[in-house]
Each structure stands twice: as structure tokens, then as C-alpha cells.
Amino acid sequence: MSKNINVEVNSIRLEESSETPILLLLDPSTQKVLPIWIGTIEAVSIAYAQEGVLHDRPQTHDLLLNMVEALDGTINEVNISNIEENTYFADIILNTINGTVTLSARPSDAIALALRSNIPVTVNQDVFETNSIDLIIDNSNEIEEFKEFIKDIKPEDFS
Fold first, then answer.
1. What is the distance between the alpha carbons of residues 29 and 7, in angstroms, rounded to a whole number?
2. Domain count, the chain
3. Could you tell me the sign of the dihedral formed by the alpha carbons of 29, 30, 32, 36, in that order?
4. Is the dihedral of CA 84, 88, 121, 26 positive or negative?
5. Residue 77 CA: distances (Å) to CA of 74, 99, 118, 133, 156
6. Distance from CA of residue 25 to its chain's centroid?
7. Which of 9, 79, 103, 134 could make an S-S bridge to 92, C-beta 3.0–4.6 Å?
8. What's 34's DSSP letter?
9. Do 135 and 26 contact (CB within 8 A), yes or no?
10. Strand 32-37 vs strand 133-134: parallel, antiparallel, or unpaired?
11. What is the CATH number for 99?
12. Cβ atoms within 10 Å, residue 61
């Protein structure tokens, strides 16, 4: 069985040329990050979770958590388990009345759930070591730029 590394959701940055959001998962022990390119909607959901933004009505990831709880389940961990042809794969590990269940998910969705429920995020060690890079400390206003980028986004922009 392969070993997993505990990571922290470090930040979301925008790739300069395309303005595509990149999620950075940090291994605090090595200061290396695993960059994962994600969609804008997913980036907004993750940013809301990081900021603790609550909505009057449940958003998709909140609804999923409510469903798991209503079925007497708990999410134990989300794991970035594999990469194939530059696409990352994640697993959501749940405890249910029938035992442990592992669901396949996009990393961005799994991480949005993890941040909302304060559960660990792990990465397969081989995947992390092969694809991680050194964390580059940038003192620019990237977080403020991202907040500015998402503040005017509305759901109808994506329909």
C-alpha cells in the first residue's frame, strides 16, 4: 500500500497567460507544493470555504455534506490518489453504516468538501514527489487579485 503525505491547501493563484486558477497543496515539512489546475467555479467554491463564506441556501458542496450527514456518514479524508495524462484523480473516503466507502472525485470537489468539514487532505507520496515544485514566495497581491477576480462572478456567467 502506498504512503500518503498530509498537505495543506496553501492558496489559489492565477496562471498569468490564461488566468486559469491553480490550486497549491503544500507539504509543510518540505515547503514543496503540488500545483493542480482547476476550473473557475471550483476555485470560487474553494475560496469561499477558505474565507468561511456562508450562503443563505446550501451550495453544491454544502448539499453534499448535508447528504452524507443525513445518511449517518462521515468523511474521513480526501486523497489525491493518482495522475494520468496530466489529470489528477482524488478519492473521498467515507465511513458509513455499511463500512468504509471510497468515492472517486475531482480533486477540486474533494478539497472543497474537505475545507468545509475540516478533514485531512492527503496526496499519494509518489504522485506528490513526482509532480511537486518548490514553493515560490511571492509578496505580490495575488490573493487580493483573486478576490477581485471572483467578486463579480455570478452563477449565470457559467450557464
1. 9
2. 1
3. negative
4. positive
5. 9, 14, 9, 23, 32
6. 8
7. 103
8. E
9. yes
10. antiparallel
11. 3.10.690.10
12. 23
The answer to whether 78 and 63 have CB atoms below 8 angstroms apart is no
For CA atoms 34, 20, 38, 61, the dihedral sign is positive
Grid cell for residue 131: 509532480
C-alpha cell at 134: 518548490
- At 156, list the grid cell: 449565470
Could you tell me the pTM of the whole model? Answer: 0.80
The rounded Cα 29 to chain-centroid distance in angstroms is 19
pLDDT digits (tens, 9 = 90+) for 27-78: 999 999 999 999 988 898 888 888 878 777 878 888 888 898 889 999 999 9
- How far apart, in whole angstroms, are the C-alpha atoms of residue 132 and residue 135? 9
* Residue pLDDT, tens place only, 127-156: 999 999 888 766 555 556 666 666 666 666
**Domain range for 33:** 4-158
